[in-house]
Structures are given as C-alpha cells and as structure tokens.
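Protocol check, entry for the methods section draft. Step 1: assemble the input record (protein sequence plus ligand SMILES). Step 2: submit for complex structure prediction. Step 3: store the structure tokens unaltered in the notebook. Ligand used here: zinc ion. Step 1 record:
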Amino acid sequence: MNGIIDSCSRNTCPPEVLFLSIDVVFPSSVYHGTLDIYLDSFKERLLNKNYWKTGRDFGQGLYTTISIDQAKAWARSMQDKWNEGQPCVLEIAVQAERLTFQPHFRIFTGISSEWAKYIYQHRKVIPGEGDPCSSHAHIAIGPMADANTGNIVQDAVRLNKDSQWFLDKITRNHSNRRLDSLQLGNQIVFCDEALTPMLNLTGAYLYQGRRWRYNGNEETAQQL
Ligand SMILES: [Zn+2]
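Step 3, stored output:
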C-alpha cells in the first residue's frame, strides 16, 4: 500500500474490500522530549536511525507528540532516570508538502484491539531483531499506551498472554481504573530518514533554574 487513493466506486468494488482515502493534515509543530546534551546531535541530524531504539510502541523512529506538556513530562522523566543533562523539548515544524514521495501511514484514531496488537508486536522486539511488519509505516500516529507498558509487556510475555489481555492492561492507570482515551498521550512517529525534508527543528525549550525557557534555533546555536 502506498497511499494512492483507489478510484473504484461503491458499485464496482467487491463489498468486502474497503478503500479509505486519506488526506493527513499535520499540526504546524510537534514536540520531542529529550535532554539538552543531545541537542547538538538533533541539530546536526534530526532523523538519525542509529539512535532509534527497538521495543517501542510504534517501532523504531523519532517519537513526537502534539502536546508540549507531554514532551516536557517525558524530558523531565528522562532526566530523573539518567541523572544527567537538563530536560529539553524540541520544537519541530512539520511541512509534509516538502516530501517528494507519498508516505505510507499507520494511523490509529483511538483505542482498538488492532492498536494494542501493533504496540504489543513492536514492544516485544528485542535488539538485533527485525521489525514485525512486512513493511513498516513511514509515519505512525496514535494514542500512547500507559507509561508502565514496559512492565506489562514483560508480564505478558512471561505469562504468555495475548494482545487482548495487553489491551486491557495498558488502558488502565496505576489504581487499575480504566483510562479515558483522552487521558492516553498522543504520538506521531517518524520512522524513516527519507522524511527529513518535512521536518525542521525551529527551537528548543530548556529547563533552567526551575523554569522552561524557549530558544529559537539561531539563538540556541549561538548559546551552545
Ligand atoms: Zn512495524
């Protein structure tokens, strides 16, 4: 599938085949939570597959979100975890019209068993193992599973559970209460370096002195 819209009408298509035309409109900017020590590397090359880890929700890629707060929380949790650098949120402008090819999308507009299965399959991948898809999407978009997903995957594998069990677990909070779809985060994942022309690092929010400070790209370049 390459995203080309099929022109066959309702009358001529076999009833079991459903064709959906997609016209994806991106937000002007998306955000990526990281640490300031990696900022130079992102400025040099925003999409660098050498840094893309396996075992993540939607496969290997640059994980971004439409929510700056979610990106800030992610950056702060990274700093808590690694105890180095300062939290940093990249502001990335998105201009899909700069692409010269039609990307292959995987879009989950909400919670479904297909969504859970996709996450489960990709989360189970261990380093050195290939992607489970026959052809992984260039861009994957959808809800983010609960932050504790790593442990849930380990339990699921250990107990030989299926993706339905996994779906139930990743949509509950720490008190085992069912989460509303909007309580799950959002993620837009760029999974191919060929998408480079559509992304432009326009600035970064740096957490300094207990507050976030924005630096436009030129200013950031002078400072660091
Ligand atoms: Zn895949």
